[in-house]
Amino acid sequence: MTGLLVLGLYVGAFFGSFFVAKRVFKSAFEKKGFNKLKTVTFGDESAITANRVASVVSVITVFWLWVAFTNSSIPLPKMPGPFLGDVEFTYTAQLEDGTTDDATVSVRVYREDIQQTVDADGNPGREPAPAEVEPGDGFAKNDTLTVARYAFKVVNVWQNDEVSKKEGSKVIAINGQPIEPGSEIKIPEGTISMTDKGTPTFAPATGLRMARLYLPAPEVVLQRFFWLNKEGYQGYTLFEHTRFSLQRVLLGFFFGALIGIPIGYAMGLTGWARGWFDPIVEFMRPIPPLALIPLIIIWFGIGELGKVVLLFLAALWIMIIAARSGVSGVAISKVHAAYSLGASKWQILSKVIVPNSLPDIFTGARVAMGVCWGTVVAAELVAANVGLGKMIVTASKFQLTDIIIVGIIVIGVIGFAIEVGMRKLESWLIPWKGKV
Amino acid sequence: MRFDLPNGGHVQALKNVTLDIKSGELMSVLGPSGCGKTTLLNIVAGFLAPTEGQIELNGHLVTGPSPERGMVFQQGALFEWMNVRDNVSFGPDMKGVSRAESKEKVEHLLEVVGLQDFKEKAIYELSGGMQQRVALARCLANDPDVILMDEPLGALDALTREKMQSLVLDLWKDTGKTIILITHSVEEALLLGERLLVMAPRPGRVHKEYRLPFADLGVGNDLREVKKHKDYAGTREEILEMIWNMEEEIMGRTEESA
Fold this sequence. Notes:
The structure holds 2 protein chains of 2 kinds.
Chain A: H1 2-24, H2 52-68, E1 85-94, E2 100-110, E3 143-148, E4 153-154, E5 170-174, E6 177-178, E7 184-187, E8 190-194, E9 200-204, H3 218-230, H4 238-269, H5 271-284, H6 289-300, H7 304-328, H8 332-340, H9 345-382, H10 388-397, H11 401-429
Parallel strand pairs in A: 2-3
Antiparallel strand pairs in A: 1-2, 1-5, 4-9, 5-6, 7-8, 8-9
Chain B: E1 2-4, E2 10-12, E3 26-30, H1 37-45, E4 56-57, E5 60-61, E6 69-72, H2 84-88, H3 90-95, H4 99-112, H5 128-141, E7 146-150, H6 158-175, E8 178-183, H7 186-192, E9 195-200, E10 205-211, H8 214-218, H9 223-227, H10 232-257
Parallel strand pairs in B: 3-8, 3-9, 6-7, 7-8
Antiparallel strand pairs in B: 1-2, 4-5, 9-10
Helix pairs in contact in B: 4-5
């Protein structure tokens, strides 16, 4: 149900912000430059540019949804939260002879993540003491209860009563409403239900926000980010985890390209090399690198060497195929032109084939970097002593969801940075790509 | 020239083509598609070895590509990763001539083809006509004895094409190079052919040879004036008729075999 609500809000934000932004940011919706003069742009893909207002609102929307569905302290409109504080309800106990007596249960609901909070002196938070109540008169005495948000607790109302459950005391009503075993009564602060054996339980109202275990608030994740950089996790700071992962990717990719590109060229230039490598490449290419992890661990252990070998294998086949298709993409007229201008075979290779294959090699390199980055995280999930994947999987075992989210964000940001960097490098190194 | 096919058969692409081209001649080759024009050019260039017969140039046999026979292709044969100047000086660079030595020649050629202001431009920044002028300059920079042109103006629009035709004529007269030009356009063949070879298909052979005055008339003159020459229209009709008949013959034959 909450999922549907999130989806509804998201779709509503998509359309709602469009109509609002169209009024407020008029200039962002105007056609720019030459497109200004086009009368019809629907179906004209070249006239479509990303509306930056939409990008900003989109990111803000995701952030707002994150805040709205968590117990965040950020002042943004939020979903109804879980009940926190003190509440009291009355129960009516009845003896076998029909006499009844009322008593209250004073409930104190505290934060479920109280132990992860820190007070002004830097001490971790503690569960609060129960409220102090008078026992009251009659055979049923007043009770207290402390319970964490999102949890529920059995209320043993007879523990201080004069007549115990065994001796025939039964709870027959809550707040004056009759209740039977197996049924429940809702109050704004929570739900009082009765087990099949007639013992009341109390579950504080949860609202629509998610507990810290499932989705920590943004500021919690941000704090965790700084903490990870300062204190580290599993003996390494976040920066070191990231550095190890990146280093593995770069080393694996470097060797993959170093070996793969010459092999690809050889396959494009000589029949012997093509025949020799064709079966290996075609066999190895469809195997996902993840399927090789067990074998790699058996052969090379869980250390750096195993990771680099795995990423080398992930990059190798991609780079071979990229270099090979780069050679096959050379127009024969270019090669003939170079021959008739007096170029030697070596000059044909270095001056014509290599530069002409750069666009294909770059495309391959982008794919290979993406695959390597995905593979390294997965490999670290399986077995590693340091790395972002290792950080995430260890944190998940201790239910440290905030560390998992920090890890996921760092992985995403770095993957995005790699892609952007490769694109910039590409447009700088091969400006003629796509223009010929 | 015979091509063996994978299914065991073969195609006779060229048969009994005997030509004697004198130094400094401008010969255009015309014919319906599939008559072996490009095969002939590839053999002369040395990219294909003839199954029978031989090519002789300056007293030696042609066995492979060589800088003495420069080629100009239709399009896409320029090196996009180099700027205009580097493309033109590619030939001298390959020979190991220093840039200082080749500089003068390259600058001169760029001026001749009217690209002196575009030396540092990348190839993809130039229009199609400019690109072909770079290709011409690149070929000339190597100082070949023979220039082979494979539909060099085929991809250009009609107006650019006319201008380029004048340029080719002027270069021919200025440099005195021997030029073999393959074309699909009858007009181009008439204007740029001191000698005009009409080829016939299956097997590719020389159908008829003309010696025309239009190329000489066109040097330094307006080509439109040349087209008004009394023989021009007649020759054009004659050749068009010839090629139409050949095309019809081919069509008829494919219909029969089908």
